[in-house]
Amino acid sequence: MKNRMAFYKEKFMEYSIRKMTVSEYPMLNDFLYEAIFIPDGIEPPPRNIITSPELQIYVDRFGELKDDFALVAEVEKKVVGAVWVRIMNDYGHIDDKTPSLAISLYKEYRGQGIGTDMMKEMLSLLKAHGYKRVSLSVQKTNYAVEMYRKIGFDIVRGNEEEWIMLWQEGKH
Fold it and tell me: Which of 91, 90, 152, 111 minimizes the C-alpha distance to 7?
């Protein structure tokens, strides 16, 4: 995967996006915690929240299912973000053929275009493996909703707090 540049702290930074290695799968726990959207002024939840069954579904035994795919963003040989998918009965579940997506970047690397590039790489990877759709859930107040829309995700349903969004090949 090719190297890219982002403007960060008044300078350009080089980053790359690549497949996550099996030895890096335990990092998904950290990125799962980072993926929790915390609105301004709200106290972050305790770190052990990720041990709850409804969150562990995203990372438990990752890599054991044929639909498990993960990419990372790397800056100066440090992993700073991850995007991963699997078919699971999570908040964003559509059906048993549509992977659900999770994405996370460390705070200091957000807003640079890295997340958008990770999403696009994941969509390319999924298309190459024959997937036509991917879903995600996102809190309505999360700024990332606009990024998802720009990439081609549409809102398909929601509740008081969250949207379920779907990307479909050929629709955009």
Answer: 111
